[in-house]
Design a protein that fits this description.
Helix content: 40-55%
Radius of gyration: 18 Å
Number of domains: 2
Shape: globular
Strand order of the largest sheet: 1-9-8-6-5-4-3-2
CATH architecture of the largest domain: Alpha-Beta Barrel
Number of strands: 11
Bound molecules: ligand TUI
Largest sheet: 8 strands, parallel
Structural class: alpha/beta
Low-confidence stretches: none
CATH class of the largest domain: Alpha Beta
Distance between the termini: 23 Å
Mean pLDDT: 96
Order of helices and strands: HEHEHEHEHEHEEHEHEHEEHHHH
Length: about 300
């Protein structure tokens, strides 16, 4: 199963690993790339030198292509944008905004730019400003999400732009992968399934939460703030829901949320940490290697797509 994206990026399988802030480090990204997918190191809101260190560590583990994600709300986005050029990164994905101001610099450094987009209008704007492909991410995803589901977003963006589309949000197995490709996507991005990979270094409590999650265990809070986030329900998410109900000012959200993701990922605080995960967490029931995850996705999707319907 080759795709335009595989040719463009020099990868074997049309599978991107989602850029999860504080989670997608050198260990995870290098394992995914080494297995033939595209591993992506997440910048999140971390200081630039920390992410440069992860990029260098990943390059020691694998010589295959590695991507970096720049979260555009980060106070370090400008220096991160320069760092990827200095480190010879050839694929950049972006989240939570429009990267137009960096486009010229990235193009001059021969970088493929692939923004995450939550709507048709934003997809078109990104392509006009020079995006090489777009990641259409549905609201089933974990973390910062848009309004539309993957099912309706992907075909509309496929129809609206001439560049390859990567489908994201709610894809955790070969059935989801096959469905996304049938909707016209050229590749998929998978985040939540990689949370329980052996090479994913998050706290064990976080992995257990994902392994035990049921279909209705995630919730989106903060829709009114303009930065809605999908997490596994806990005391923190209930606190955010109270703020949503009481129409609290943005400062209240910041106070409650400061450092919450790192608290879950590093310290395993499952009460007041932010346990970002997508709705597909419910189908994940074992720990395995990144290679096994990629092979499982590919084998099942291939079987379904080549199915003899007679
Ligand atoms: O970015 C994500 N998911 C994330 S980022 C994150 S860390 C974080 N830290 C502080 C505040 C908020 C988040 C956790 N999860 N996904 C990609 C994504 N991008 N989802 C939605 C968008 C998006 C939204 C608006 C992309 C472009 C956009 O453009 C708006 C405009 O008008 O320019």
């Amino acid at each position: 199963m080759k795709s335009l994206i595989c040719e463009m990026l020099g990868i074997e399988y049309p599978i991107f690993q989602g850029a999860m802030a504080w989670i997608a480090n050198a260990s995870l990204a290098a394992a995914v790339s080494e297995a033939g997918g595209l591993g992506i190191i997440a910048g999140g809101t971390a200081p630039m030198e920390l992410i440069r260190g992860e990029v260098r560590k990943a390059k020691e583990i694998t010589s295959k292509p590695i991507g970096v994600n720049i979260m555009l709300l980060s106070p370090h986005a400008d220096e991160m944008a320069k760092m990827v050029c200095e480190e010879g990164i050839k694929v950049v994905t972006t989240g939570a905004g429009t990267p137009g101001k960096y486009m010229e610099m990235w193009k001059a450094n021969d970088i493929k730019v692939i923004p995450v987009v939550p709507s048709v209008a934003i997809a078109k704007r990104m392509v006009r400003s020079g995006a090489d492909a777009v990641i259409a991410e549905g609201t089933e995803a974990g973390g910062h999400v848009g309004e539309l589901t993957t099912m309706v977003l992907v075909p509309q963006i496929v129809d609206a732009v001439e560049v390859p589309v990567i489908a994201a949000g709610g894809i955790g197995d070969g059935r989801g992968m096959a469905a996304a490709l049938m909707l016209g996507a050229d590749a998929i991005q998978v985040g939540t399934r990689f949370l329980t990979a052996y090479e994913c270094t998050i706290h064990d409590n976080y992995k257990k939460k994902v392994l035990n999650a049921k279909d209705i265990d995630t919730v989106v809070t903060g829709r009114r703030t303009g930065h809605p986030v999908r997490v596994i329900k806990n005391k923190l998410s209930r606190g955010f829901q109270e703020l949503d109900l009481n129409i609290a000012p943005p400062g209240e959200y910041e106070k409650l949320g400061a450092g919450a993701l790192a608290r879950a990922v590093l310290e395993g605080d499952m009460e007041y940490g932010s346990i970002m995960a997508g709705q597909i967490a419910a189908i994940i029931n074992k720990e395995e290697s990144c290679k096994d995850i990629i092979m499982d996705l590919m084998t099942e999707a291939n079987k379904l797509l080549n199915r003899d319907w007679n």
